[in-house]
Amino acid sequence: MKKQLLILATGLGLGALMLSGCNPQTVSGKTAELVYVNWAEGVAYTHLAEAVLTEKMGYDVKLTAADVAPGYTAVAQGSHDAFMECWRELHQDYLDRYSDDLVSLGTIYEGTETGLAVPAYVTIDKISELEENADKFGGHITGIDAGAGVMKKTEDELIPAYGLKSIKLMASSGPAMTAALADAVKNKEWIVVTAWKPHWMFGRWDMKFLEQDDDQVIWGKGNIELIGRADLEEDKPELAQFLKNMYLTDAELSDLMVKVNDSDEDVSTVAKKWMQENEEVISDWIPQS
Amino acid sequence: MTIPKIPVGEMFESLINWFTDNLEMVFDSIGNTVTAILAGLKFLLLLPHPLLMIVLLTALAWWTAKRGVAIFTVLGMLLIYNMGYWTATMETLSLVLASVLIALFIGVPLGIWSAKSDVVERIVRPVLDFMQTLPAFVYLIPAVLFFKLGEVPGVIATLIFSLPPAVRLTSLGIRQVPSEIHEAAISFGSNPRQLLFKAELPVALPTIMAGVNQTIMLALSMVVISGMIGAGGLGNEVLKGITQLKIDIGFEAGISIVILAIFLDRVTQSLTHSDQ
């Protein structure tokens, strides 16, 4: 009896499956397929872009969250329109690799910082003081994923330039690094991490970047860019123009990120509200045709 | 004396490049099939109101497993609904079901074949070992190159990772059919087809179902990894939790995966034991 029922259920299921599988998806004109990374700032402004594109410009927007490498690959292959989280100084490898298939859509945020950071209660201020205080940091810099841009730069440039011998760079992962940081802050222990800004760690804890020597500047300020597929401007000129126009100041992005972080509602709803409260910011983004 | 490095990685890379350049049509049609299966499953799972769906799943648990499992199902699923992960959970479930359906579609016939032929067995076994032990992350980039971002490469990566037990245990089950049954079936004049469907498969069914159960569990373990290539669902929620150290989101989504896993495990396990 059970067996017959099971067969019947499977049959019904497969039947319904075929019916629904056959319906072609109806696409209403303008579409945007954006890939973002699950990083706080990108999540915030990508959903803001979704809100503006859907509500103000009549687009059908599809957001996909992915890791950095798959994200670049998908956009370079042309299956998605734009990658929303390019840190040029850290992602140079991907940009070189796909240089023919990608095009920059300009900056969305200016003034990113990268480097080594410590909690504010740590009493040293300079990278050059690390070596003599190595013991207090347990002999290591807490890093993130092996292969990440910030890791390569620390390993290949910073460590030789500052002659760091007693302190080693330890690879872990973004979450592990922040977890170690959370733990150290709780116990007021010394810790030095590879860090970049904007990052929520600077909002949650009192942190400072270690200063560089004037003659050994490894880390410069940078920008976050949006990267489109090579033929985006021909295919979807309006979308390309919109993404080029998108720009947030530090104050605007911080405000948006804090609202996303503090709210219980989902990011799309928060972004929509932020859009309504900041018409003057987003009205500049919409291309005039 | 230095031996030049054998370009293992480079050879893999050129192979992948050759695939993407020459087999695009094949990948596209595979992708379209997977998309259709996924769309159908997601449509079915999200069609009824969550509460009705919870009743249906609980009924399924009660009917197949014990009352305890049914009680667990109703409480667990209500918790998922209450925490706000219902849609994500159903997306994940459809991803897992799609992978498992395809895995069985490929795995069971392959298992039967390799039970019948030692040559096939000898070829298939190392391939399965390779599929299962190569770190799952390594599949991600080829999956993206072949199938873009999203649920489709998620299903493919999950499929590769979860297929081996379906093949292995089908083969094992059929090879373990006692020779008396074999002889009896043949002496009553069974042809090979009757032998397979009337004697071997029914006897091997518990073992095959154990393979199904393992396939489902392996598929669930890929949920978070496939979130890295845009497969969405609960995997994405877990990743969001860990990349931003939002312990609450990570834990809630993680618990939802566990509830789903226990439900699927108990239901498929009881299918193994009952009805014999």
UniProtKB/TrEMBL annotation, chain A:
Its main location: membrane. GO terms for cellular component: ATP-binding cassette (ABC) transporter complex. It comes from the Bacteria. Keywords: Cell membrane, Membrane, Signal, Transport. Residues 1-21 form the signal peptide. It is found in: Cell membrane. GO terms for molecular function: amine transmembrane transporter activity; carnitine transmembrane transporter activity. Residues 34-277 form the ABC-type glycine betaine transport system substrate-binding domain. One of its GO terms (biological process) is choline transport. InterPro entries: ABC_Gly_betaine_transp_sub-bd (IPR007210). Transmembrane segments: none annotated. Gene3D superfamilies: Glycine betaine-binding periplasmic protein, domain 2, Periplasmic binding protein-like II. This is Glycine/betaine ABC transporter. It comes from Tichowtungia aerotolerans.
From TrEMBL, chain B:
The chain crosses the membrane at residues 43-62, 69-88, 94-115, 136-161, 216-235, 247-264. One of its GO terms (biological process) is glycine betaine transport. It is a multi-pass membrane protein. InterPro entries: MetI-like, MetI-like_sf. Residues 89-268 form the ABC transmembrane type-1 domain. Keywords: Cell membrane, Membrane, Transmembrane, Transmembrane helix, Transport. GO terms for cellular component: ATP-binding cassette (ABC) transporter complex. Pfam families: BPD_transp_1. One of its GO terms (molecular function) is amine transmembrane transporter activity. The keyword Nucleotidyltransferase does not apply. Belongs to the binding-protein-dependent transport system permease family. This is ABC transporter permease subunit. It comes from Tichowtungia aerotolerans. The lineage of its organism: Bacteria, Pseudomonadati, Kiritimatiellota, Tichowtungiia, Tichowtungiales.
